[in-house]
């Protein structure tokens, strides 16, 4: 099952992320897929707000560190695996403690490590339609998708 919505400006993607973030719970893994500049980091910034992470943290892609960690309703582990060749590098750093731990993991460029993304992950694909418009397609186990869809509907999506 999939839920597809449109974001017509960057602020909308933040808001969509916030709604999704408010639905997340301990141990969730969010796999983000989308081209350069699609809006993966923007969506993650919204997710951080939905996880009640303080606005004083600027959520930026952890390009050189691989992972950034922020305290919130659940700890957010923000991965950007753009520079990785594959999942081997993550295996070396013990990714299981993050993916199967009590925090929430959000992974930009998750398609690069598709082989180690848990089956229960929430996958969000962002497609660039034009300068300000993005298609956001969410797939998740049925019950989770229902929860997220219903929260998005309440928020006007
Ligand atoms: N509807 C929209 N949703 C998200 N971002 C948008 C939208 N419209 C315009 N933008 C712009 O697109 C850019 C998205 O950048 P962002 O860093 O979030 O992308 P990204 O997918 O993380 O890129 P990268 O692959 O470099 O990490 C921002 O400059 C943002 O302002
Ligand atoms: Mg990014």
TrEMBL record:
**UniProt keyword RNA-binding present:** no
Q: SUPFAM superfamilies from the entry?
A: P-loop containing nucleoside triphosphate hydrolases
Point out the coiled-coil segments of this chain: none
Q: Which domain of life is it from?
A: Bacteria
**Where does it reside?**
Cytoplasm
Keywords, in A-Z order: ATP-binding, Cytoplasm, Hydrolase, Magnesium, Metal-binding, Nucleotide-binding, tRNA processing
GO BP annotations, alphabetical order: tRNA threonylcarbamoyladenosine modification
Q: Name one GO cellular component term.
A: cytoplasm
Q: Name one GO molecular function term.
A: metal ion binding
Q: Give the matching InterPro entries.
A: P-loop_NTPase (IPR027417), T6A_TsaE (IPR003442)
**Of which family is this protein a member?**
Belongs to the TsaE family.
Which NCBIfam families is this protein grouped with? T6A_YjeE
Protein name, UniProt field: tRNA threonylcarbamoyladenosine biosynthesis protein TsaE
Q: Which organism is it from?
A: Syntrophus aciditrophicus (strain SB)
């Amino acid at each position: 099952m999939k839920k597809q919505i449109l974001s017509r400006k960057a602020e909308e993607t933040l808001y969509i992320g916030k709604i999704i973030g408010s639905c997340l719970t301990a141990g969730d893994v969010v796999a983000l897929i989308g081209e350069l500049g699609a809006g993966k980091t923007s969506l993650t910034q919204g997710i951080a707000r939905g996880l009640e992470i303080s606005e004083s943290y600027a959520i930026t892609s952890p390009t050189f560190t691989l992972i950034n960690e922020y305290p919130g309703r659940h700890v957010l582990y923000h991965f950007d695996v753009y520079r990785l060749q594959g999942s081997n590098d993550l295996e070396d750093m013990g990714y299981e403690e993050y993916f199967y731990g009590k925090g929430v993991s959000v992974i930009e460029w998750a398609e690069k490590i598709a082989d180690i993304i848990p089956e229960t992950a929430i996958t969000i694909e962002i497609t660039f339609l034009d300068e300000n418009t993005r298609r956001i397609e969410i797939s998740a186990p049925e019950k989770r998708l229902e929860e997220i869809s219903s929260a998005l509907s309440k928020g006007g999506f």
